[in-house]
Amino acid sequence: MANRVIHFEVQADDVDRAKAFYENAFDWKVEQMMTKETGGMDYWGLTTGPDGTPGINGGMYKRDPNKKLTTYDCTILVQDIDKAIVDVKKNGGTIQRDKNELPGVGWFAAGTDTEGNTFGLMQATDWKVH
C-alpha cells in the first residue's frame, strides 16, 4: 500500500518530562536511538505496541524554541477510554475535549501532553482498526 503514514514524531521542551508522560500514561517504550555525537541530534524512539498489531511507532526530540511547527494530530487507540483519560491527567496531561461517542466508530476524547502537543484518544467499538 502506498502513501500510508508509517511514523510520527513528538517535539518536547523537556524530553525527560515527555518520556515519563508517555511511559506512564500509555505504557509506551521510550529509548534513546541517536545522540548528537552519533547522528547529529538527540533522538528517542517511541514503541507504542507489539509488532503485528495495528498502529505505528514514532520518535521524539527536543523542540527548537526558535521554530514554530505546525503538525498533524495523532490518535491513540486505547482499550478503556475512561482509564486513559484518568492516566493522562494523573501524568500531567490535560483533556481538551471530553469523551463523546462517534456512532459506529467508538468513543473519542482529545488531550494535550506535558509539552503542549495535542492528541486524540479512541476506544473503538464497531469498526476494524487498520
Q: Largest sheet at a glance?
A: 4 strands, mixed
The percent of residues in helical segments reads 10-25%
Structure class? alpha/beta
Strand content: 35-45%
User: What is the 3D shape?
Assistant: globular
CATH architecture, by name, is: Roll
Strand order of the largest sheet: 1-4-3-2
Radius of gyration: 15 Å
Domain count: the total is 1
Mean pLDDT: 89
CATH class value: Alpha Beta
Instruction: Note poorly predicted spans.
Output: none
Number of strands: 8
Counted by DSSP, the helix tally is 3
Q: Care to describe what's here?
A:
The chain has one domain: Roll (2,3-Dihydroxybiphenyl 1,2-Dioxygenase, domain 1). The chain contains 3 helices and 8 strands, in the order βαβαβββαβββ. The strands form 2 sheets. Strands 1-4-3-2 form a 4-stranded mixed β-sheet. The chain is an alpha/beta fold and 130 residues long. β6 (94-102) and β7 form a beta hairpin. It starts with 7 loop residues before the first strand and ends in a 6-residue tail after the last strand. Helix content is 20%, strand content 37%.
